[in-house]
Amino acid sequence: MDFLIQLVTDPLGFWSSHTLLISQIAINSILASSMFVVLYSGQLSLAAPGFMAIGAYTAVLMDIYLHTPLALNIATGTVLAGIVGIVVGLPVLRLRGVFLAIATIGFIEALSLGVILNLPITGEGLGLKNANADPLGGINLVLVSLVVIVFLLWRLTKGRLGYAWTAIRQDELAALSQGIDVPRYKLIAFVLSAVLAGYAGGLESHLNFFVDPNEYGVPRTVQVLTFAVLGGSGNVVGPVVGALFITTLPYVFQQAGDYIGIVSGVILIAVIIFRPQGIVGRGGFAFVRPRWWPTARASAPSTG
Amino acid sequence: MGQQILNAIFIGSIYALFAVGYTLVFGVLDILNLAHSAVFMLGAAVTYTLVVNHGQSFWLACALAIVVAALMGLVIEYVCLRPLRRRRAPPIAALVSTIGLALIIVAAIEQGRPGTLFAWLWVDGANSVSLPGGSFPNPTWNVAGLTLEGSKLAVIPISIALMLLLGYVMRFTQVGRGLRAVAENPRAARLMGIDVDRMIALTLVISSALGGLAGILFGVALGDISPYIGRDSVEVRGLAVIVLGGMGSIPGAVLGGYLLGFIEVLAVVVLGSNVRAGVAFAALFLMLVLRPQGFFGAQLRERL
User: Fold this and answer.
1) 3-state DSSP call for residue A24?
2) What is this model's ipTM?
């Protein structure tokens, strides 16, 4: 509670004493918006940490070996994540629902356990030291990025692309029969999500003196998915709220001490039971709803 | 080589037993029960605590641990799943509530130290422990250069017998027919006079009992009992197994379990232990891209 009291009574002190936390919330929010893009287009892709790893390692390696400026490092990592996104997206986007989720888990685990932990250049299991990190100064860049990304995604979802994604999410076959180029729009969403995750990875690596290979595995992806589901993915604000909620939970309930895991679990269950569609608005998860699942409408559309 | 094959069959049996419970819930409910790996861990932890801290006999401890796991199945149903079904939530919401429960179970064990709230449940905190040598029967033989440990050997017939029993129940008994009817179409099943909620509760009980037993076998035979064995050893691999075998297919999960055991052991022999997990997930990724329906999932509609 001290945490919330300080936020209200002493915002400036809060800002200076919790700079790292605020940056982390913003990074997590960017990740959540990366998850939002794929969910909004009806794809349960869990590949975000893989693209993050690509963004982070590329940025740090360029800094160590080429001494290029930060902007170029992060940009290269982002572009590389996008390219890998195209390569991975082309074969896996034929899969739907849980199958896509598990294929993307296969991708991130193969990448982190098979590649990153075994290449000498990535420091194998030891990770990489990032001497030029700037944990406190990076916050402005991170916050500006978050605002720009959220705004762009909000505009995108209100435009042609957003309508195409909504159509695909609600019923892929119907979208196809309306002349929407479904594979193309799905790939756009997947690659955009990869780019955002790569960018978040690059930013995060700039805030930490150490790139930890264990950060980019399944626990991370489960966490990011929880942001999106708990916040609700009907619009871009939902996942951001989810990220904010979950990232600050341990601070808000500081008194729980060692029992924070139990408190968090209870709160997760309570929130999802009372707001099944997410904290913000309707979830729009028709694409993973089994055909027998009871819906509010009189006749549920068959989702296969 | 013989020893390696034996290891593959042993670890494959554990994977299969764990995955059968996973796939049973998915087949009936179309939900991934992410608390399953926590129940796996709880089975092992309860057995250890009863034997070491409460001085019970090994067999009684095992029986009680299976009962606890089965009760946990009821908790999953009544706390995480039924309220969401009542509120017509999208199935992906169940992902968050089961993650929440898994978080609670793992945190409760993790915090268990002498003098804390959960000291009666666990006193070793985050450490990995093993049952003391004399506390369970473990005859060891040396045959033709192979070391045969009774505790590992026993895993194989126990798993196979239980999976055959489950197959028999599903195929030939009234309960099994009811479960398959619910999996096929809950609305029609309800019209036929089947108590759908009770069938779902029963599914969770069977699934969790099998998961808990898999945990006991794993913890006892490998001598590795910690709050993290579920998350680290079987959670993602269990997903891989049920995908390899075709989602919701019990024979598929059994075959997938043994296949993953062999792939992993083969990867260790051929490529060294570093890339073991990476290879398994690369195989999973390829499998999904090339044959998304799994081995037995050709007719996705026909489950269990």
Assistant:
1) helix
2) 0.84
Residues 192-251 of B with CB under 8 A from A: 231, 235-236, 239-240, 243, 247
pTM: 0.84
Cβ-Cβ contacts under 8 Å for B290 (sequence gap 6 or more) = none
Q: For A35-70, what is each residue's pLDDT tens digit? A: 999 989 988 888 999 999 999 999 998 888 888 888
Q: List pLDDT tens digits, range A107-139.
A: 888 888 777 777 777 777 777 887 777 777 778
Domain span at A107: 23-217
CA-closest candidate to residue A77, choices A88, A61, A89: A61
What range does the domain containing B210 cover? Answer: 2-120+147-290
Task: Please identify among residues 97-126 of chain B the ones whose CB lies closer than 8 Å to any CB of chain A.
Answer: 97, 99-104, 106-108, 110-111, 116-117
Residues of B in contact with A92 (CB under 8 A): 285, 288-289
Total of domains in chain A = 1
Is B187 part of any domain? yes
The count of structural domains within chain B is: 1
Nearest CA in chain B to A218: B236
Cβ–Cβ < 8 Å for A9, A22: no
Residue type, A128: L
